[in-house]
Amino acid sequence: MIMKELSYVGWCFWMNKRQKELLRMLLIDLNTFVQVQWLADELNCSEKTVRNDLNKMESLLQEYPSAELKRRRGLGVYLSISHEDRVKLFNHIYQAATIPEDNRLLDIAYQLLVTDKPLTLADLAEKHFTNRSTIKAELTTIARWLADYDLQLISKQRIGHYIKGRELNKRNALASLSELIPSKPWERQRVLHLFPRNEINMVRKLLRDMQNRYHFTMTEGEFESLQIHALIMIKRTRQRSFIFLGDSADTSSAKLETYYMTAWFLKQLEDALGLSFPNDEYVYFTWHLESCRSTYAQKKIHDHSLVGDVVQRMVSELQQMTLIHFRDDYVLINGLENHLASALHRIRHGLTIRNPMLSNIKKKYPYMFSMVVWAVEKVNDAHDLHIPEDEAAYLVLHFQAAIERMDKERLSTKRAVIVCDLGVGTSHLLQAKLEQSFRDIDILASISQVKLAEFLKKHKVDVVISTSELTGWDVPIIVVSPLLESDDMQRLERFLRAIDQTANNEEQKLTNIRSFLDPRFIYLGMHLDHRFKIVESLANDLARCGFAEQKFVHSAMLREKASATAIGGGIAIPHAEPAYVKKSVVSLAILQEPILWGNEMVSVVFLLAISKEDQAKIKPLMQAMSNMSQTPAIVEKLTDATSISDILTVFDK
Predict the structure, then answer these.
(1) Do 322 and 370 touch, CB atoms closer than 8 A?
(2) What is the pLDDT of residue 92?
(3) N or C: which end of the chain has fewer CB within 10 A?
């Protein structure tokens, strides 16, 4: 008996990685024909290689009495094996290599979402060839993820685990299962492997046929999303877990062009699979077709009053908070209208969209993300909407692109004034030479020194070009010869580059943070176990000491609940409405132990209380914190500090 067991293990170790994966795929798709070409594509080899591997496998499987490879021309191959032998074979295969954790997590979540019967720890552990404690830990991960979809994982002793919630929310979660893969949350192909191969191929082909038939364009991401939703519809219809839209299924959907496309598509599926989709499923799929953003590119979005109102409100709020002239950027306005037309459609019908870049956007653009979240809250209140943070993150990219367009224009063209007291002819000659040699300088005027103060009050100037020494001015000044010699031009080029570099570096200086720190509001070794408790504690201290109104506490809590303010690198930057700040200050808490802040572990917390009067300083302040989040050495110095003096020394440097 021992020798027999060793022979089982021996040939499993003899198999190479490709052959083990081939066997694993056949064990998962039991009693389901799989095409050899598909197996070859998945294993990145030729059909001949797969057939050779199957021949070797056939002789090796003789060790298992119930195992039989069945092949049928035109259909493919499948493995027939008893449950007992399947368990043994799986155990032998994975003595050297365990089942990938990603696959197991996806499969457990999928089974919970599509089954109506409770699943026990023992059942799940046996199916996935692992122990109960591993399954229990993964159920905790799944439960946290399900909460984002308003779903609850119920655990009852001696009964098992099941999911409680609306069918619509279950389908939204099923369509977003790939989020459970931390390294590649947008990799939908892993989710497709949970569905039968023949249905995947059928749905893909019919969607392509529908596109060609109705000249309907969509992005590859939209195509994959529709494919997954269609597969989920098939699965849930077979299980008689229908979607009930109630009052949401208004008659207007039946008048849309996309409804006729849906009717054609689902009728093909019904005929091929012997199914009958209820009317609500027709409406549900129509909603998903309508939410494809590319379909709106050809529509007159300006006719949608809600979209126009939301865009105008967003732009107005952002312009007021950031003091940036967004209203003049028609590229921004058009981009927001295109995006929000489909986003508001999704929100109206409860169709979720997950942003795989959410975490990176929060880290890379903390200032703009915070400003957009504030603006979104005001839009939500004004229009009775609920724009989630995933959609808000996409809006951040629109506004950030607008800023970068403006910055490019600003950095490439310097507004300059010439100060020359040597006569009109000399000043005109200098201006002509500058305009001829420096196309990126916009000469606003040529004036005398006595008129400079008044001119600077009325005009925004990047640089003063003077023929004589000037002192006591805030604006950058360079002195050149009235004849603009070659060495003058070289110095001017270097000077302009230095201005750009200074503008970029200024936003990243730790001194920007130090100027707002008050030793009374620096806390070492704070021991609170939840981000809401920390924000509330820090905000209450500021209100108690007269730096902010009591409403500041409520505002900070609402902002944190809307979207976690972690920016990576162990740092979080909670903040609140400037209207409730009496005197600008930044609280700093060094936590005794890192805690989970949204999806990030955080050790250092800055609570920003910046008044309306100081709003121009908030962008460089957040940029400095963002830069610090990418500098682990600085964060380490803060967490290692043993006194407030040590903390201040870090920022003084």
Answers:
(1) no
(2) 62
(3) N
Question: Which residues are CB-neighbours of 552 under 8 A, at least 6 positions away?
Answer: 539, 542, 543, 576, 577, 580, 581, 609
CB atoms within 10 A of CB 181: 18
pLDDT tens per residue across span 593-626: 999 998 789 999 999 999 888 877 887 888 888 8
Q: What is the pairing mode between strands 463-466 and 585-597? A: unpaired
For residue 207, which of 274, 277, 258, 278 has the smallest C-alpha distance?
A: 258
Cα separations in angstroms, 379 against 306, 343, 372, 382, 390: 11, 14, 10, 5, 16
* 252: CB partners within 8 A, 6+ apart: none
Question: Using N-to-C axis directions, what is the helix angle for 366-383 and 305-322, rounded to 10°?
Answer: 140
Cβ–Cβ < 8 Å for 566, 535: no
Inter-residue contact 566 to 537 (CB < 8 Å) = no
415 pLDDT higher than 80: yes
Residues sharing a CB contact under 8 Å with residue 212, sequence separation 6 or more, in sequence order: none
Could you tell me where the DSSP H helices lie in 462-601?
Answer: 486-506, 511-514, 531-544, 551-562
- Spell out a b/e string for 341-369, using b for 16 or more CB atoms within 10 Å of the CB, else e: bbbbbbbebebbbbbeebbebbbbbbbbb
- Closest C-alpha among 148, 104, 164 to residue 599: 148
Backbone angles phi, psi at 367, to 5 degrees: -65, -55
**Residue among 504, 526, 414 nearest 459 (CA):** 414
Of the candidates 404, 406, 399, the one whose C-alpha atom is nearest the C-alpha of residue 311 is: 399
Report the C-alpha gap between 633 and 630 in whole angstroms.
9
Identify the residue whose tokens are 């506004």. Answer: 399
E strand or H helix at 155: strand 152-156
Give the list of residues 6+ apart from residue 210 with CB closer than 8 angstroms, or none: 216, 261, 264, 265
**Average pLDDT value for residue range 430-435:** 85
Beta strands 441-447; 414-419: pairing state: parallel
* HEC string for 364-407: HCHHHHHHHHHHHHHHHHHHCCCCCHHHHHHHHHHHHHHHHHHH
Radius of gyration, CA atoms only, the chain = 32
Write out pLDDT tens, residues 297-333. Answer: 444 444 457 888 899 999 998 888 777 788 888 888 8
- Give the DSSP per-residue string, 574-627: -B--GGGBSS-EEEEEEEEEEEEETTEEEEEEEEEE--GGGGGGHHHHHHHHHH
Distance of CA 384 to the CA centre of its chain: 24
Above 50 in pLDDT, residue 98?
no
